[in-house]
Amino acid sequence: MIYSKVVGIGSFVPEKILTNEELCNIVDTSDEWITSRTGIKERRIAEDGLTTSDIAAAAAKKAIKISGLNPQDIELILVGTVTPDMIFPSTSCIVQNKLGLKNAAAFDISAGCSGFIYSLSVADSFIKSGKYKNVLVIGADLLSRITDYADRSTCVLFGDGGGAVVLTANAENNRGILSTHMHSEGGHNETLMLKAGGSLMPASIISVNNGEHYIKMKGAELFKYAVNYLRDVAEEAMESNNFKPEDIDLFVPHQANVRIIEATAKKLRFPMKKVFVNVEKYGNTSSGSIPIALDEAYSSGRIKESSVVLIDAIGAGLTWASSIIRW
Ligand SMILES: CC(C)(COP(=O)(O)OP(=O)(O)OC[C@H]1O[C@@H](n2cnc3c(N)ncnc32)[C@H](O)[C@@H]1OP(=O)(O)O)[C@@H](O)C(=O)NCCC(=O)NCCS
């Protein structure tokens, strides 16, 4: 049996911090409301000119360095994102060029905030099939570019950032990605969407004036789907590996809202000391959320060699996904 082992990890967030207090000068909100409803205290905002591929390339560069691989050994680049630099070419091809990864095929995966785990799953399948040995998987988003800073119900939630892992084929028994699980429900697509800029509603003066190039979200509905689907998909991952909650060393959930994280952890019977949370620093960075959290958990020693890590996420689509990794 071939496993996809994580041999390198990295992340990148822009320097500029936007605090809750600063948001109070932009929309009618308060630090108390944002903190009590979401747990978020601040988020990172990219300066003008910085692109998703810049964030992705910076994170990937660190991951490749840690992996010790020759960059020319990377055979595939996957970028999970809903904020590509442009509609085409893909952000992964732009990353390939920025990092000079001449021998890699490259494509993007659009699965909302589940983009990183979906990409991890695709990479794992390629590695297990024997098609590729070394795959670079990135999750990166620049949500500030599609956030309406006049809409207080969404603008307090989102931030910019990304992370990356390098996966390598590994024959060592039971080390690497143990399983991945993906789901989608297109019938719930109106809970979270950005309508304009595609074939349905090409960019026009009308689409811009109507604010259709911004995220539209039904927050309360999404909250309910999130707590149920995130529990279900985490349970599915544990059941398929014959694991109980006590067999998991660290649960790294999508960082959207601390109330969703706490409700999911409670349903799964995980004490919060086994749950990684950094949403207070970054808000929801979409596909960037899980790999940034994994990188911080790894760098701070909460993930060590052989740690069993459960990740799960939900996002636009709707999509939701999970994976268990033995590091
Ligand atoms: C968005 C979210 C934080 C809202 O929290 P909530 O407790 O559900 O709050 P509600 O939507 O019931 O809004 C309550 C009130 O607060 C107001 N409100 C909304 N945003 C506000 C803000 N930033 N500051 C102050 N008040 C705000 C609303 O207008 C509403 O006022 P009303 O009762 O007078 O109409 C929550 O629904 C959520 O996190 N949903 C999931 C979002 C998510 O994770 N999206 C990404 C998934 S990948």
By CATH, the topology of the largest domain is Peroxisomal Thiolase, Chain A, domain 1
Query: What would you call the quaternary organization?
Result: single chain
Number of DSSP helical runs:
11
Tell me the major beta sheet: 5 strands, mixed
Overview of the structural elements:
This protein has 327 residues and is an alpha/beta fold. It folds into 2 domains: 3-174, Peroxisomal Thiolase, Chain A, domain 1; 177-326, 3-Layer(aba) Sandwich (Peroxisomal Thiolase, Chain A, domain 1). Helix content is 34%, strand content 24%. The chain contains 11 helices and 13 strands. The protein has a 5-stranded mixed beta sheet with strand order 1-7-6-4-5, with helices on both faces. Strands 8-13-12-11 form a 4-stranded mixed beta sheet, sandwiched between helices. The structure holds coenzyme A. Coenzyme A is lined by residues 29, 33-34, 37-38, 113, 152-153, 156, 217, 219-220, 222-223, 226, 256-257, 284, 314-315.
Annotation keywords:
alpha/beta; four-stranded mixed β-sheet; 11 helices; binds coenzyme A; single chain; 327 residues; 2 domains; Peroxisomal Thiolase, Chain A, domain 1
What's the arrangement of secondary structure elements?
Elements: E1 3-12, E2 17-19, H1 20-24, H2 31-38, E3 42-44, H3 52-67, E4 76-80, H4 91-99, E5 105-109, H5 115-129, E6 134-142, H6 152-155, E7 160-170, E8 176-184, E9 192-193, H7 205-209, E10 216-217, H8 219-240, E11 250-253, H9 258-268, H10 279-282, H11 289-299, E12 308-315, E13 319-326
Parallel strand pairs: 4-5, 4-6, 11-12
Antiparallel strand pairs: 1-7, 2-3, 6-7, 8-13, 9-10, 12-13
Helix pairs in contact: 3-4, 8-9
The chain binds coenzyme A.
Coenzyme A binds next to helix 2, helix 6, helix 8 and strand 12.
